Amino acid sequence: MAVRFGILGPLRVLENGRAVDPGSRKQQVLLAALLSHANTRLSADALVEALWDDAPPRTARKNLQVYVSGLRRLTGPEPGTEADPTCGPGATRISHQAGGYILHTAEAELDALRFEQRARAGALGEALGLWRGSALDGFRDVPLIDTAAQRLDRRFLGVFEDWLDAELAAGHGAEAIERATETAQRHPLRERLRMLQMTALCQAGRRSEALAVYDELRQALAHELGLPPSPALARFYRSLLCEAGPVPPRPAASAELRPPPAPRPHRPAAPNLLPTDPPAFTGRASAVRRLTEVLTGDAGRLAVVTGPLGAGKTALAVHTAHRLAGHFPDGRLFVRLRGEDGRLRPLEDVLRQLLAATAPGGRDGPPGAPPPAEPSDPRWAWQLWLTGRRALVVVDDARRESEVRPLLPEAGESAVVVTARPRLIGLEGAHRLWLPPLTVDEAVELLGRTIGAERVDADRESAARIVRATGLLPLGVRLVADRLAFLRHVPLGEYGARLAGGRALLDELCGGDPLVRVRLAESVGELPEAAHWAVLRLGLLARPVFTLDRAAAALDCDPGTAVRVLEDLLEASLLTVAGAEGLAHTVRYEMPALLYAYARERAARTADRVPARHH
Fold first, then answer.
1. Contact present, 589 and 566 (Cβ < 8 Å)
2. Where is the OmpR/PhoB-type domain (predicted)?
């Protein structure tokens, strides 16, 4: 029996070239889940959740076994074993291993595997020809399947863009227009695809249509994301406006990401003190959109990005600032309020750094120019520079309102984004943006950017377990990713078990680097004494999620006193709240994973010295 499977479109099962009914809806969901993770183990828990979501029956495991049995009859034996009489009845295509199931399939039997093989071989047209529509169409309501389908969709787009780029290089842009336009309409915000579509239209002499494509994209980006087109795409558009000129050359595959710098004579330029845009920045689309809306709005252009240590506040601010060059023609400035030792820098030092970059003959002055004269009153000089200008200032790691107020513009159209763990509720008129942990999918994607997507895709279940152990905060994911990049010989499943074992999380992630512990110690050490010791007492709880009653018991105080202490920790972003609506005793408080690990570590060392009551 020759069986073939298709998931690059609606689910399809062919037996000897003829379509076969895959069975009931539940059995089809199970088959789609296994095929979308072909040759990879899926746990029984993950499959039960895929089949019944949050309401599995008591007989879910037994029912799962029934569906697996039906699929075994449908799909036949494991590839390569059918003709081997020594394999026996155990040579099934769907095997049970370590509490989960694996569907074994050869490259020739599954269209998704054939697609990858042909794409790697450079047969891009053949690879694209295997697609029959949206991957796993009809099963995208199942999260386990939808995540895999989205991964296939992204791979399709990458291969399609490479194919279109090759067609343009061969001068076949006119022939590819219809297909490029159809695909671009399904993915209207994909900038590289839109640039290639515009180039194809230009090759066909349809320059005005190419300009219309850019305008459509510009409006879509502004409406959906609150962002302008990338600088490379904007330059490409400007080149099209010269209608009498030749057709612009086709863009390179990565032109929209890394455009070559154009040579220019030296002239004073708007200062740019931004750190490098974080190369592994992942997710946070809604946060970027909201922050962009605040900073480019008509009023109140002051944003405070808050969240626990390691939430990625600075990365969000810097990433967004890099996208807003066109909105702030007078410069984008970045200043840290604290030195490497964690101590607050004197205000005069902070102002001198800003003024040195903005003064004529400063950072962007001509070679050999003398340094600018130091003003007698840096605060007045800074406000004078801001007056009448439109600049963006990123103020990093504020702890108190008084540290920020002297830097805020009193006049002009400049905007300021402040990153802080406390919420800085005393800053009037500020728009506050709280950064929650990443989603599991975002955290897994961030992990894959460091250790390789192939390694993650081979065992996404273990990858998800690993990132959950870090609390889904970007700092924790980055630490574990760096560790795994070094331990390339360690399977993800084994490493996930190690994190779930007895070894302290901080020991595993930090190794000999004390920096994370230092930053955690700073965040706790700055607290009032009652709150400081409360963190250590809460670290003695068995889990980082707890109710008010459990907190009061751990702090050995009445609920009213416990609430006041917990609210201090909430203000300092050392706790978060889930399910805040309802009665106080039903609220669930949560301590971020890294802080909880630190608190448990410290509490174990100082158990005899932690006071029992708070008054």
1. yes
2. 1-105
171-241 CATH fold: 1.25.40
The 8-class DSSP code of residue 584 comes to G
Domain 515-609 has what CATH class? mainly alpha
- 3-128 and 515-609 share one CATH topology? yes
For 427-472, list the strands marked E by DSSP.
431-434
**Of 239, 230, 233, which Cα lies nearest the Cα of 202?**
239
* Class of domain 285-364+378-434 as given by CATH: alpha beta
In angstroms, the CA 69 to CA 287 distance is: 46
Q: Is domain 3-128 classified as CATH 1.10.3520.10?
A: no
Residue 80 has what pLDDT?
Answer: 58
What the block records as the tokens of 579 is 């399910």
β-pairing, 392-398 vs 332-336, is parallel
d(Cα 505, Cα 599) in Å, to the nearest integer? 11
Among candidate residues 334, 235, 221, 232, the one with its CA nearest the CA of residue 277: 334
pLDDT for the residue numbered 264 = 37
Tokens standing for residue 23: 């069975």
Q: Taking the domains of the chain in order of start, what are their residue ranges?
A: 3-128, 171-241, 285-364+378-434, 440-510, 515-609
Q: Check: CB of residue 227 under 8 Å from CB of residue 221.
A: yes
Report the pLDDT value the prediction gives residue 542, as an integer from 0 to 100: 85
SS3 at position 397: strand
Q: What is the CA radius of gyration of the chain?
A: 29
Residue 524 to residue 599: CA distance in whole angstroms:
9
Q: Which residue(s) pair with 420 in the sheet?
A: 306, 398
Beta-ladder partners of 590 = 545, 576
Residue 164 neighbours by CB distance under 10 Å: 27
Q: Please, which residues have CB within 8 angstroms of residue 94's CB and are 6 or more apart in sequence?
A: 34, 68, 71, 72, 75, 101, 102, 103, 104
* Residue of 464, 487, 488, 490 lying closest to 477 (CA atoms): 464
DSSP 151-186: HHHHHHHHHHHHHHHHHHHTT-HHHHHHHHHHHHHH
The DSSP line for 301-351 is: -EEEEE-STTS-HHHHHHHHHHTTGGG-TT-EEEEESB-TTSPBPPHHHHH
